[in-house]
Amino acid sequence: AQSVTQLDSHVSVSEGTPVLLRCNYSSSYSPSLFWYVQHPNKGLQLLLKYTSAATLVKGINGFEAEFKKSETSFHLTKPSAHMSDAAEYFCGIGSSNTGKLIFGQGTTLQVKP
Amino acid sequence: DAGVIQSPRHEVTEMGQEVTLRCKPISGHNSLFWYRQTMMRGLELLIYFNNNVPIDDSGMPEDRFSAKMPNASFSTLKIQPSEPRDSAVYFCASSPGQGSGYTFGSGTRLTVV
To answer: DSSP secondary-structure letter at A18?
Structure first.
């Protein structure tokens, strides 16, 4: 079985400071990993995905994530937070066998002026 | 490409009534997913289809819920009879293949009173 755990339910940063949203995964085979963002009352938008190519994945809006197999982690980072980054972020794991995608519980990112 | 299209955007119904949510996936995507989002339980995968065939419905809460995909361009999620605890945002997503990106619709906000 596959699963993801988002280690923080809420993260608060000041505008212009780095963002770190943590995600650990569990999988018995090589996973596909995703980060999605959800702004209030909106659907989910794909930020980036890892599918067994480069371990450092760059996404939209300046976000990136690094796949670390030894740590079973796929943390999302951004060097400098903008007010518009305030949203809910979901880490997801997809099965290459079944195509099934499941999500962690989400992390709310608050950006303070 | 119009993306994944869900209808209606909002639905308010009385307890006991039948509710039907609709989804049109992206043309050419052969996997379709239904999710439910609530504050308490986060994003839950209810059911998914590959090539119009239901693959895993283990997330469907109970027999009141049913989903169909009669063809590659249309799916429905039905709740009969509806209950107040079914109030949530229901998302549909589609994917072109296993491990590929998943595109989400804007969701249907269901309120059962």
So the answer is: -
Spatial distance between the Cα atoms of B80 and B66, rounded to a whole number of angstroms: 8
Q: What is the pLDDT of residue B62?
A: 86
CA distances from B82 to A95, B38, B40, B67 (A): 32, 16, 19, 14
Q: Do B43 and A95 touch (CB under 8 A)?
A: no
Residue B91 is nearest to which of A43, A92, A102, comparing CB atoms? A43
* A43/B105 Cβ within 8 A: yes
The pair of structure tokens assigned to A67 is 């796949």
List, in sequence order, every residue forming a beta bridge with A106; answer none if it has no partner: none
Nearest by CB to residue A100, choosing from B42, B45, B105, is: B45
Q: Could you report the per-residue pLDDT of B30-65, keeping only the tens digit for each?
A: 999 999 999 888 899 999 999 999 999 999 988 999
> How does pLDDT run across A56-112, given as a tens digit for each residue?
999 999 999 999 999 999 999 999 999 999 999 999 998 767 778 889 999 999 999
The region, left, alpha or beta by phi > 0 then psi within -120 to 50, assigned to residue A52 is left
Mapping DSSP to helix (H, G, I), strand (E, B) and coil, where does residue A85 land? helix
User: What is the pLDDT of chain B when averaged over all its residues?
Assistant: 93
Residues of A in contact with B48 (CB under 8 A): 99-100
φ, ψ for residue B98, nearest 5 deg: -65, 125
